[in-house]
Structures are given as structure tokens and as C-alpha cells.
Batch of 2 targets.
Target 1
Amino acid sequence: MAEYICLLNKQDTIVIKPAKKTPILLRMIVLMFAMVCGVYICSVCLKQTSIHSKIKFQDIQVVERLSPDDDHGNLQISSVHYPNPETFSRAECAHNPVRYFAILSMQRSGSGWFETLLNSHVNVSSNGEIFSVLDRRINISSITQTLDKVYNLDWFTSASKNECSAAVGFKWMLNQGVMQHHKEISDYFNRRGVFAIFLFRRNLLRRMVSVLANSYDRHAKLLNGTHKSHVHSTEEAKTLAKYKPIINSTLLISDLKEVEITAAKALEYFNSTRHIVLYYEDLIKNPAKLKDVQAFLGLPLMELMSRQVKIHKGPLSDHVKNWEDVNKTLNGTAYESFLQADY
Ligand SMILES: *[C@@H]1O[C@H](CO)[C@@H](O)[C@H](O)[C@H]1NC(C)=O
Ligand SMILES: *[C@@H]1O[C@H](CO)[C@@H](O)[C@H](O)[C@H]1NC(C)=O
Ligand SMILES: *[C@@H]1O[C@H](CO)[C@@H](O)[C@H](O)[C@H]1NC(C)=O
Ligand SMILES: *[C@@H]1O[C@H](CO)[C@@H](O)[C@H](O)[C@H]1NC(C)=O
Ligand SMILES: *[C@@H]1O[C@H](CO)[C@@H](O)[C@H](O)[C@H]1NC(C)=O
Ligand SMILES: *[C@@H]1O[C@H](CO)[C@@H](O)[C@H](O)[C@H]1NC(C)=O
Ligand SMILES: *[C@@H]1O[C@H](CO)[C@@H](O)[C@H](O)[C@H]1NC(C)=O
């Protein structure tokens, strides 16, 4: 024990103790023992945390990323492409590589906002919700045809900036054929090297309020007789937020569960593709996460911007008519935290 203290307090020992022959060897042994113990404990900790993070869906943080270089048995598929569009010439950018992506999300989860952010990048061309048109997803061959056209840069929307695009894609809601044809679609993604960007919302109760309010506005048209799903001014946001939906508390828990399961299933279906998982709340709280997205897509780093304004701000209790009811229903359940969270 005395020797142990010596280690910490060298100067004293030199003065006080004319050390005997034992010290050097003993010290070395003690030191080695401590090091081995330390390494062992660290490795056990690491192992446990990594197992833990694999298991829990809720714990997946912003980046559960399979980097473009990861080996998934599809190394032979290149992640960069040199498309040769039929409708125009890529001119001086013909030699710039292009990456393919798809934003896989659900309605009212921030994907509209996220897409405007991406499109503010000079080299990104994200073509909007192209599969909202039923004809394009009526069967897998029309889906494939549409995808081929998008990734060949031959799809034209107001968002497309085709000549010098370094990443081309679109946003795709899970209920627009993604879940139904998941097998063929994930095969396509792997075959053609399409990167999947999952965007989910953590607070599914807030999402539900947004879904209900948006579907009410489809008929009510609160903004001078027009319906808007996204707004660009605080006045418009305030007007839309005036409507407080009533949430059917009988179905609340099962509805929330269903959304959660859909997201988990989608992740499982596409787990062999190159993908990244994002949460709306994390992007709001930490805009630096957008750098991860740009890195994932191999883009030159830029400041991304959106003019969209959030509609339902502040405590959720201000936005639900039968709040007490909802509070009581979720109190003590796994979804209790949804009552408080800010975004
Ligand atoms: C898919 O739908 C298109 C358009 O409705 C149709 O022309 C085509 O025959 C269908 N293909 C298959 C394989 O069912
Ligand atoms: C991005 O776009 C700019 C402007 O069109 C172009 O000069 C540049 O080469 C593009 N970068 C990449 C990586 O494609
Ligand atoms: C609605 O009409 C009012 C009054 O005419 C006007 O001030 C406001 O800007 C309009 N809002 C929209 C969204 O057009
Ligand atoms: C809630 O949904 C259930 C099942 O669809 C229905 O029976 C019930 O009337 C609804 N409650 C309200 C308040 O709308
Ligand atoms: C993907 O999910 C399937 C089904 O759950 C599983 O068998 C497979 O191991 C998973 N693959 C990866 C790469 O996680
Ligand atoms: C919420 O649950 C706690 C116990 O879990 C209970 O004491 C409290 O009264 C409940 N609140 C409401 C509003 O039901
Ligand atoms: C839910 O109800 C309880 C009891 O009335 C209250 O203390 C609590 O603040 C409420 N929670 C929210 C988020 O409003």
C-alpha cells in the first residue's frame, strides 16, 4: 500500500523513505494490472452500449448511418453515377458525379421543410412528392419507370437544377407504395445505388395534431379561401393554428402505435440499403445535423436555408380542444412524454 502512495507523491517518498529493492518490479506489476483492468472494463462498456443501441428503435439517434463505403455485399454497385439525360446536355458538368437519393417519410413529419432545405443547395435536385400521383405507383413497373426517369435527370419540376446536380432525388411517403412494394423497391435501391434518407418525427402526438389540422384546412381553407400545407409567414401560421382539433382518445394509443410500427417496419425492410435515419426534432434542435446529410450525399458543404414557418408552436395543450382527455389517456403510458415535448 505504501508503494502505491509513493506513485502519487514522488517527491515526499524520496525524502521520507529510502526505498528498498522491491519497488520497481512491484510498481510495474501494479501498473500493468491497473492497465489491463482498465482496458477490460472499457471494452465491456463499449460492447454493452453497442448492443443496447442496436436493440431499441427509440434510441436510434440522428445518424444510424451505413456509410457509403460500408460492405453490404453490394460493393460492386457504385454509389456515384454519370447520367446521360435524354432531354438536355449536362454540358460542362458531365464529368461531375451524381448520387441518387430518396427521402422516405410520412405526412406531417417535416419532410416538406427538409426538402426545401436540401433544395437550397446549389447541387441538389429534389423533385418533390412525385408519387402522390396514383398513376405513377399503380404497379411496380410504373414505379420503376418513374424512378428511372428521375435518376436519369429527365424529370422536370420547379425544384430541378439539372446540369450541375451532384445529388438527385425526391420525397416519398411510406403510404405511397413504399410499404406495399418494399421488396422490389429496396432491390432497385441496391441495384442502382440509391441512398435512402429516412425522416421521422419523434413526437407522434404533435404529428397527429398537424395531420388533423391539415386535413381540416383542406375543406375549411382558412387562408383567404386557399388551402396551404406549408406557410411562409407567422401571420399565416397563426391563422392556421387557431383551429384546435379534437383527438379521438379511444383510438389514440392504437393510432400512435400503428405509426410507430410502420416506421420500424420501413427501417427493417430497407436495412440492406445505404441509409441514414433523421428525426425532425433533432434537425430543429441541432441544425449542424444537416452537415451529416450533406456528407452522406457527398455534397460540398453549404449553409442550407428554408423560408417555411412552423405552424403549431408552443405547448401542445394550446392546440388540442379536448386536451384533458388526451392528457388522461396518455398519462402513465409509453407515450406520456409526447404530452410535454416542445416540437
Ligand atoms: C402497370 O400499369 C400500367 C398503367 O396502368 C399498365 O399500362 C401496365 O400494363 C401495368 N403493368 C403491369 C405489369 O401490370
Ligand atoms: C455545383 O454547382 C455549381 C454551379 O452550378 C457547379 O459549378 C459545380 O461544379 C457543382 N458541383 C458539383 C460537385 O457538382
Ligand atoms: C388575406 O386577406 C387579407 C385582407 O384582405 C390580407 O391582408 C392578407 O394578406 C390575405 N392573406 C393571404 C394569405 O392572402
Ligand atoms: C372514436 O372512434 C371510435 C371508433 O371508430 C368511435 O366509435 C367513436 O365514436 C369515436 N369517438 C369520437 C368522440 O368521435
Ligand atoms: C435486416 O432485417 C432482416 C429481417 O429482420 C434480418 O434478417 C437481417 O439480418 C437484417 N439485415 C441487416 C443488415 O441488418
Ligand atoms: C397521472 O398518473 C399519475 C400516476 O401515474 C396519477 O397520480 C395522476 O393523477 C394522473 N393524472 C391524471 C390527470 O390522470
Ligand atoms: C396533465 O394533467 C395533470 C393533472 O391535471 C397536470 O398536472 C399536468 O400538468 C397535465 N399535463 C400537461 C402536459 O398538461
Target 2
Amino acid sequence: MWYSGITIIPKRVTMEKIQHTSLSDLVAGKLADLILNGTYMPGYQLAAERDLTKQFGVSRTTLREALKALEEINLIEARHGAGWFVSTLNESNLAKAHQIASSAKGTIPSIEEMEGEGSPAGPRRLPVAPEKPLIIPNLKTDRLGTFQLISWWEREKVQNARVMVVGAGALGNEVIKNLVLMGVGYIYIVDFDTIELANLSRSILYRESDSGRRKAEVAAARAKEINPYVHVQYLHGDVTTAIGLGVFRRMDVIIGCLDNREARLAVNRFAYWVNKPWVDGAIQEFLGLARVFVPGQGACFECTLTEQARRDLSIRYSCPLLARENILLGKVPTTPTIASIIGAIQSQEALKLIHGKPVEAGRVMHFNGMTNEMHTTSYTPVEDCESHWSYGEITELPLRVNATKFSELLQIAHRDLGPDAVIELDQELIIALTCPNCKTREEVLEPISQVGFNRAHCPTCGVLRETEMTHTITGKEIFLNKSLAMMGVPPLHILRALNSKEFRFYEMTGDLPDALHFSHFEIPELHKTFSIRNRIRLHEKVTLLEKPHITLHEKVDLDDSETIKIE
Ligand SMILES: [Zn+2]
Ligand SMILES: [Zn+2]
């Protein structure tokens, strides 16, 4: 028995043996109980073994013994490749189930106790998947037909899924290729780079003749070529500044195929703000890792940063113009093979997220291609992590960033939040550059993304100038008559307004038709031809104007927080 740390072991009886046998009996008893009380009904699938081990707090070996014991009395049965299912109940196995269940009563915590709020790592029972009706696909005419044979594959979900792929390098190429092969319906591709010959050794989507062309555009065009039934949109721009948050808000999954920390941090925060899962991947030589971050479930990307990494980021941010330049440096050697492996895992994780299947959020999977070792580890969530913010209810304004002045938006904020309301921008605005040497001051009024490091130096004496920046619009600025777009606010962005008590979130929804259409490289005739031949259901339209399904969170209350400060 277990007396908080003190264990009395009788002579000649090893501890392992006692615990081993009894624990698996207890788990078997609990499972039998769940079947008897109808939690698991006949024909239903038990939770995955991994989840069950967590649920009961036992090792996999112990769990397997328990499952075997239940299988022996015909209470459950294994289906190859699918898992454990509850058998049909009859007199014989019912009697035995009662016997097993009664011997385990009250010995390990019940599920109800464990489901309490205080246990975030608690049991997650898989949603019950009723048996799929058997459909024989026509593999001659239906390119996605084979997937129908996968027991849990839901074609509709995959066809309606919206996935953003950030980065169209080695990983991005693999991920995009996989997504289009699997028929993921709506793919949004982002990259700010152009194709160089060196990319060709790791990028299945690029050709020699593409040299100098934009990666995002070429990747989108090739994706459409591989599978004309998917819808693509590309954006040639920097993920940290060029994509409106409203785009993130309308995605199901975001896949990061990035090579730098700054971009990952940006994607992480955007995903958190609009409560979307994202899948990160990283590769170097023969090493790679993949990880899923889900807001509210374990650690996020920022939580994983070491103290040193945080310091590096803050050092770089202390000279903001230099920081941006540096992102482009530090290229890492990779191979197409490691890109395939990690890109494949990322794609599969995205597929699981699309299906609502469990993922191991906040954990990392490392793959070492030299030793062929793969291992996963958990990250510890950081309590006061700066990324852990979710936007509250979002107000959709029929406004566009290029036709709305700061004064107009401020007016709306004042109406909703009172005269003290200010607007917070996600990007720093460079107000002016001042030379400490010759004291000249150059007014800039441009977003930081548009000001290169070369401009940091004084044109007269060459000294590094001081940067005057702001990201808070109070109403006193001299650029209130400029449009949001002119100051770097991307289309379909969601802006934060706040007073001393609460936030409001305004989306520039007037940009929606232009900012999110998934209609690049569409060939209208092609669709007609295909629908006449009735190859595939193509009538599924992009319902962009419908209200997106997002979870609305409580408003962030400033009184409860110390992490956001108003200047
Ligand atoms: Zn975090
Ligand atoms: Zn100067």
C-alpha cells in the first residue's frame, strides 16, 4: 500500500511485483466500471492508450496488462490499427466485468475527481466515432477516394479546412505539397522571399526558370497545378507585419515553416490572440523538430525560449532597425530529406487538428536523422508569458485600412470606451530620426517595416541616429489624418483600443473580399468541365462573408493584469 512516501516492503517480496499486479487490476476495474456505467458503450472506442495512461497515471505496460485482462474476458477487443473497442455485452462478460469492477472500487481516483479544474493534464476522452458507413470510392475518377478508406478521415472537414502556411522554403514546399495532395481545401501561403537557384535542391515546387520570382506566388501556382480542386491564395510579404489578424482569425490551422525566432514569435502571438492552433517545424542538417501549440493548452512558443534567447531578442529590439536586418541573416544548411520528414509530421499534425483529433500541444518531437532517434519532451508553460493573451469579442467594422484615417478609428474608440481611449498598434511607427551629433531631426512617419537600417545613419555625419517611435495613438499625433494603411496596418487587421479598464477589438472587415479570397490561379472553365463530369463536389463555395466561427473570450480586464501597461 502507499503511505505518502513510506513503503513497507515485506521480506522476499519485491515492491515492483506487488504494485505491478495490483495496479493493472485496478485500472482494469476502473475501465470495467466505465463500461458498466455506460461511459463506454458497446461498439465504442476507448480513448487512446496514451490518454489512458495519463488518465490513470500508470505506465503503458500496466495499462496494456489491464487491457489484456479485459480482452480475456471478452469485454473489449483490439481492432488492428484503430485501437480498443467495447465488445457486445452478454451474461458472461457482464458478470466478469462486475467482478473486476467491484474489486477496484475506491482505490484510485475516479474520473470525476480527476476532471476537476485543477488538473489541466486530465483525461481527454476521445469523442466517440460511430462506425462510418462503407463507401466504395471510384478510384478512377476520384483522386481523394483512397482517403475515404481511412476509418477516421472526414472528407468534408479536409475540403473545407483553411490552412495558412507561413514560409515557402524547404519545409514550406513539403507542407504545401502534402496539403494539396491530401485535398486540404483552402491554402494561404505567405513568404517575403524570392527564388534563388540554391532553393532548387530542397524545393519540389520550384523550377530553374522560376529564379527571381516570388516564392509565395510560385508555390501557390504549383499547388494549384498539382491539385486544381484546392483553392489557394498567396501573400508576398513579411508575416510579422503584412498580414491582418482577421486572416489568422479565419484559419483553422497555421503551419510555421520558418527559419527565425522573430517570425515564430510573431506567429505565436497572432495565433494566441485569435485562439488558433499552430504547428511549428525547424530543421538543420539531419536534425529536426516539430511541435504543436494550442492556446490554453500547455506551453506556447514563447514559453520555450531560454533566458538567453529572450535576452537576444531584447538586445536586438533595442536597435529596432538593425533587428529587422538581422532576421535575414543566419541561414542554416538543410537537406530535402529532413525537410520531408519534418514537413510530413507538420502536415499530419495539421490534419489531426482539422479533424479535431487529439494532439500533444506544448510538447516537442525531436528527430535525429544521424541516429534515427525520435523523442518527445514537454515544455513547462511560463506563468506570466507575454504571449498568453486572447482577444475578446471582435467588432467587425465595414471599414478598409486604406480608406480609414486614424482620427476616424479613434472616434469609434472614444464612442465605445470614452475620451481616454487610445489605439495600440502592433507595429512601431518611426516618428523621427535624430542625430545626437549634429542635432538634426528628420521626420519619418513610416512603419518600422518600411524603414531600412541604412536610414538609421545620419546622412550628414554618418553617426547612428536615435529612433523616435510610438505604437500608441492617443489623438495628439500629427498623422491622425493619414490612413491606417499608410502607417503599416495590414488589410483586415484587428486593432486594439483601450482605456484604463478594458479593451475593444476592431476588425477592418471592409477589407475581407480583397484580403481573403482563395481565388488565385482559379480557372473558371476548368471548374465547369469538372462539375459536368461530376468528378467531385465543387459546389462548396468559400463563404467568406459569413461570420467566422471563433470562440469569443472574456474581455481582458486591465485591473487583473500587470503585463500590459498603458503609457
Ligand atoms: Zn507562452
Ligand atoms: Zn549627424
